Amino acid sequence: MTTAPFDPSPQHTALSRLAGTWVGPTRLWLDPSGPPDESETAATVEVILGGRFVRVAYSGVAMGKPHAGELVIGFHKDAGEHETSWIDSFHTGTAIMMSVGRPHADGTIDVLGSYAAGPERWGWRTIIRETGDELVIESKNIAPSGEEYPAVETRFRRAR
Fold first, then answer.
1. Are 58 and 73 in contact (CB under 8 A)?
2. Tens-binned pLDDT, residue by residue, of the chain (160 aa)
3. What ranges do the domains of the chain cover?
4. Torsion angles phi and psi, residue 82, rounded to 5
5. pTM flag (> 0.85)
6. Domain at 10-158: CATH code
7. Which long-range contacts (CB under 8 A, 24 or more apart) does 125-131 make?
């Protein structure tokens, strides 16, 4: 199936540069005051729908168990914001987390979503930075009080 061409923004062009295969260490904090769980993660980033979005499909191990997920990243030209949808087998359960955020001048993607934790809502910040052959995807839990805590950090290196 082909998609109709569109006029990509600089943000779409930057997303397209992420296409490829990536591998790297992941650190996962369930207790931000304790040491992280560490494992290796592999990801494939694919440009989809004619360059409108990228899909990050990843797999690894979390707390000793197989773990996989997908993150779709786009840039909404009219709103001037990055938008993401995220699902995975460890963090999101049966939910789809939607996040949005304005682009940074340096190209960093910084989006904010939220999730229910009992009767409260916690925030979830995802920060994505790419510098040539390194792709860093970092997530932080944000308590209802506003404090941010490290949650996940993966430092990918380009494999192909």
1. no
2. 555 667 899 999 999 999 999 999 999 999 988 999 999 999 999 999 999 999 999 999 988 899 999 999 999 999 999 999 999 998 878 899 999 999 999 999 999 999 998 899 999 999 999 988 899 999 999 999 999 999 999 999 999 7
3. 10-158
4. -75, 145
5. yes
6. 2.40.128.20
7. 126/71, 126/84, 126/86, 126/99, 128/73, 130/14, 130/17, 130/18
